[in-house]
Amino acid sequence: MRQLDQFRRRAARYLEIEPTNVAPARGLFSLSFDDFPENAWSVAGPILADHGVLATYYVCGGLERGTNLDLPQFTTEQLQALHAAGHEVGCHTFGHDSVLRLDGPALADSLDRNARWVAERLDGYRMQTFAYPFGDASLGAKRALRRRFDLARGVREGLNVGREDRMLIKSFGMESRRLPGYHLEAMMAEAADKAGWLTAYAHDVSDHPTPYGCTPADLDHVLTLAKQSGLTILPVGQAWGASVGGARTLKAA
After folding, report:
1. Three-state DSSP state, 176
2. Ranges assigned E (strand) in 92-196
3. For labelling, which of 73, 76, 93, 224 has a CA lying 20 to 30 Å from the CA of 60?
4. Which residues lie across from 200 on neighbouring strands?
5. Distances in Å between the alpha carbon of 183 and those of 100, 187, 203, 230?
6. Which candidate, 101, 79, 98, places its Cα nearest to that of 90?
7. Which pLDDT value is given to residue 208?
8. 191 in Cβ contact with 199 (< 8 Å)
9. Which helix or strand (DSSP H or E) is residue 165 part of?
């Protein structure tokens, strides 16, 4: 099963590509929170507000008031508060299931359930961007998602600039254990110099994060570097519009 999953992920990276020209007028940075734990709002929210920036929260309706990675997950009240504050809400499937474990009808049902769940709580709000749970992508999922969303965000590192796959946008993980291995200043500078779009994803935010989370100081540091590099910080959906708003979808080579 593991080898098959690796093959399917690799196939999704190289096949069913819908190439799009990512060309913002200036360098952009987007931050997103996946799942999301309570502290991604209660702790991260004030940091975002202090910086005067907005992020994207990828929501699984089935996790509301539940537990994931031994952490309490978001509440409806938190979801409504961050939406009211101007943050983007994106789709992460209803039950936080890998698309590798969902056939076509099951994926469609999960997406429909999540869409209804969010719309009922946010006055008809329609999610326009998607993030793959666990970073898993498949050819079938890419085909299904392109009919529903403007883009799908993955977890492969790199700068989005020029020819990119609309259904597998690059992003780097903001885990405290991984951040020391990045040359963040160089990554931000490249995005500014090449007028590209750099995205990052996070999970929990606390002084003692899980292996998938970061500290408040880490979050503050990344946002400070992005601003110092001259990057405009936007939620994923707004950054997508700024990146391809007048650009054309390219024909596959």
Report:
1. coil
2. 129-131, 151-153, 162-165, 172-173
3. 224
4. 31, 172
5. 32, 6, 21, 17
6. 79
7. 96
8. no
9. strand 162-165
Under-50 pLDDT residues of the chain:
246-253
CA 190 from centre of chain: 20
DSSP code at position 106:
H
Residues, the chain: 253
pLDDT of residue 250: 36
Q: Which domains does the chain have, with CATH numbers?
A: 2-16+26-244 (3.20.20.370)
The residues that bridge with 192 in the sheet, in sequence order, are: none
CB 17 within 8 A of CB 252: yes
Which pLDDT value is given to residue 7? Answer: 84
Q: What are phi and psi of 6, to 5 degrees?
A: -65, -40
- For residues 199 and 88, give the distance between their C-alpha atoms in angstroms, rounded to a whole number: 14
- What pLDDT is recorded for position 201? 98
